[in-house]
Design a protein that fits this description.
By secondary structure, the chain is an alpha/beta fold. The protein has ten helices and eight strands. The longest helix has 21 residues, at 89-109.
């Protein structure tokens, strides 16, 4: 679709189809296959520390076909971290329930549950500073941020280096918030997204304001912000892609469909 051309120009890809940054699932071979077929792929940087991010990105870049666009990189904002003493009762109960379910499954498998390493907010922010340094040092030109956003100084630093910054919104309020803080494009993550929900505003009312279907969310965000919108959530085939482009998206992001 013609409306996708501005975004395609920024990404350097042939088609407005992107591989979602599935942490733990998107390997170098999958990224290379998507890029080789004319799509765009994001390396799942998550909360990897600087050295691991650089090493993983270089290994993935080495698998890409010659003359293909560089990979984008996705990182997780420090706003995803909530100190345990600030949890709502419902959050604490949910964590306990997950731990019980996990213990039961690992017990059936005859294995010990993995030990979770809890990061403080300060530790997470330190990791993110290292990630920004890595992005600049590796010459990454497309970066998406999940679970919130960067600090103003980080946004300025990356934008000054020519980086195209993409934010993730699960409702109109988040899309507006991201546009006001320097995002170049918005991922509209609908309720049917298979990965982590990227909600970061008004978490207490998550079920009321952040569970809109993808098609409707794209419609709402495209008439609210002036930025390119990328649809994500439940997009599984060409028909789904066309629907999203028809309602205003300039690109689509798929995860489960590639697995």
């Amino acid at each position: 679709a013609a409306r996708a051309w501005p975004l395609l120009e920024k990404l350097g890809s042939r088609y407005p189809i992107m591989l979602a940054p599935m942490f733990g699932s998107s390997g170098p071979e999958l990224m290379a296959a998507v890029v080789g077929a004319g799509g765009f792929a994001f390396f799942p940087g998550g909360n990897l520390p600087k050295a691991s991010l650089k090493a993983g990105l270089r290994a993935a870049q080495d698998k890409l076909p010659l003359a293909s666009p560089l990979l984008g990189v996705n990182i997780w904002a420090s706003t995803m971290v909530q100190e345990q003493n600030s949890w709502l009762q419902s959050q604490a109960e949910a964590v306990e329930e997950v731990a019980r379910c996990q213990a039961r499954v690992f017990g059936e498998l005859g294995a010990a549950p993995p030990h979770a390493v809890v990061q403080t907010l300060a530790e997470t922010e330190e990791v993110m500073e290292g990630q920004v340094d890595a992005l600049l040092e590796e010459g990454v030109k497309v970066v998406s941020v999940h679970f919130g956003w960067l600090k103003p100084r980080q946004v300025e630093c990356l934008r000054n280096a020519g980086v195209y910054l993409i934010g993730n919104a699960t409702n109109v309020a988040e899309a507006r918030w991201l546009e006001d803080r320097g995002a170049c494009a918005i991922i509209a993550q609908g309720a049917s997204a298979g990965g982590h929900r990227g909600t970061f505003l008004d978490l207490a009312n998550f079920h009321d304001n952040a569970m809109t279907g993808t098609e409707q969310l794209v419609r709402e965000i495209t008439i609210t912000v002036s930025l390119p919108v990328i649809a994500a959530g439940g997009i599984m085939n060409g028909t789904d892609v066309q629907v999203m482009l028809d309602v205003g998206a300039q690109g689509v992001m798929l995860g489960t469909a590639f697995l």
